[in-house]
Amino acid sequence: MFERFTKDARDVVKSAFAYVDGGGGGQCVEPEHLLLALLDREGSRGSFALTALGLGERRESVREALREARRRAGLSRAEADALSGLGIDVAEIVARVEEVHGVGAMAGDTQDKRWWSGRPSFGRAAKGVLEHSLRVALARRDRHIGDEHILLALTVRPGVPAEVLADHGVTYESLTRVLYGGGEAKAG
């Protein structure tokens, strides 16, 4: 599938691996790493869309929201709310674990489980995002998968990245308007 990726999309994937290798959390590339890599991009269709939607100056806010989700062991607010409905207070659990084991203890970075290969791989959710980016590109009749398709896929897959992007005004619909027209600026 990667032969269909543009240089920008391949660079996003490489940067996501760099986040994992650099201690950015976990042993696998997850959707959060793909989003962090997209936030670092400049001069691509995905970065244009994020800037057009006002995220250019609020990228650190997105990073902070992703860090907070990692502190909750990667649970989205919707998942935390569902647990709350069962009488489980995620914030209280995080506070207790961090009191005993230190801030960020639930992020899961304490032990490297890659000893057998030495390299990170794709987590199931990240694979799903990349597969969905192919479907997005095909639906748009685009010949190649660009970083904008990865971004669009992140907005529709349930989880922390979609939630964080939506909280910052970046949805599938708003991205589609910016990237493909519909009354707003069009990516070139």
From TrEMBL:
Pfam families: Clp_N (PF02861)
SUPFAM superfamilies given in the database record: Double Clp-N motif
Clp R domain location: 124-179
Domain of life: Bacteria
UniProt-recorded name of the protein: Clp R domain-containing protein
